């Protein structure tokens, strides 16, 4: 009897396993079929969905290791970056949620152009967002898109997708950190290891957080903020000028001359960090 029960239990388990495998296989087929049946609009919307930054801006920073020198990022449109939402794109009309190095709220209405499989500026909604700026946008490669302007002159701006969180400016911070600071360094004075992470954390220094500035209203040089504590409760925050030469970061103290209302950078570096 025990042997018979064991055989029956084994058969039952085998039948359940076969059923689960069949269901899993059917689900896979359905998913693939659904992807194959996506319309050109749905596929384009999926590609465009995300957070985009001027490609020339990021490329210049990669080349010069300076945000300040790369601050001229757009030929015509004035957009440092923008967000696009897939869910609104598939309806055929949407808008770019843009920002510059100084402000946000640079919205651009767009609509789908089925003949060209791209999105164009929607002139019928121009009144909602200020002065009209005629343009079209289309994919130019993996995670790259181009915005072609027809007015006031024929110019092209290219943008790079840096993440899928459409409205998270922290993605720009992370990208600047990746290009400029991320890595393990040796402090030439103390000999200690200093680690800058992509998410803005520091190990091996008194300050535990950093953020690279891309606003230059009162500055005419590259700057980085250092602080301890949380984002909401910053402790001992300081602002420093930085210079990157190859694999070396030099940090310089900054003092505000209140009489002249200008910042003065120290001649000698506060720290010299060499990348391992």
What features would you describe in this structure?
- With 276 residues, this protein is an alpha+beta fold.
- The protein folds into two domains: 43-168, Lipocalin; 181-275, no CATH class.
- Helices cover 25% and strands 38% of the residues.
- The protein contains five helices and 17 strands.
- The strands form two sheets. Strands 9, 10, 11, 12, 13, 14, 15, 16 and 17 form a nine-stranded antiparallel sheet that branches.
- Strand 15 and strand 16 form a beta hairpin.
- It is elongated.
- Mean pLDDT is 82; it is low at 1-34.
- Spans of at least 5 consecutive residues with low confidence: 1-34
User: The CATH topology of the largest domain, please?
Assistant: Lipocalin
Question: What structural class is derived from the secondary structure elements?
Answer: alpha+beta
Got a strand count?
Answer: 17
Gyration radius (Cα, Å) is: 26 Å
Number of folding domains?
Answer: 2
Silhouette: elongated
| CATH class call of the largest domain | Mainly Beta
Please name the CATH architecture of the largest domain: Beta Barrel
What's the average pLDDT? 82
* Total of helices: 5
Q: Helix coverage percent of residues?
A: 25-40%
Order of SSEs: HHEHEHEEEEEEHEEEEEEEEE
Distance between the termini: 71 Å
Strand content: 35-45%
**Main β-sheet, in a few words?**
9 strands, antiparallel
Give a summary of the structure in a few sentences.
The protein is of the alpha+beta class. It is built from five helices and 17 strands.
